[in-house]
Hints:
Layout: E1 4-9, H1 14-17, H2 26-35, E2 36-44, H3 50-55, H4 61-75, E3 79-83
Parallel strand pairs: 1-2, 2-3
Helix pairs in contact: 2-4
Amino acid sequence: MPARRCGATVPSGSPISTSGTPGCQAEALLDFLRSVDCATLFLVGDIVDGWQLRRNWYWLQARNDVVQKLLRKVRKGTRVVFVP
């Protein structure tokens, strides 16, 4: 399926985006990132939960895949904005 084109996108819902926790659904976020082609991508909230990682390191390949996908989008011209 071709990626949907849009001006701006905000993936929402912390269960999808909070990396570093066992409940993180990195695969769902990766599927979302693959399905959109946008000029601006807004990442809102705890994308990586640093406090959780300090207590218990929990990082799987799927999280690396999400980071790599975000970096690839930036290289291709997508503006990524992090809103804490």
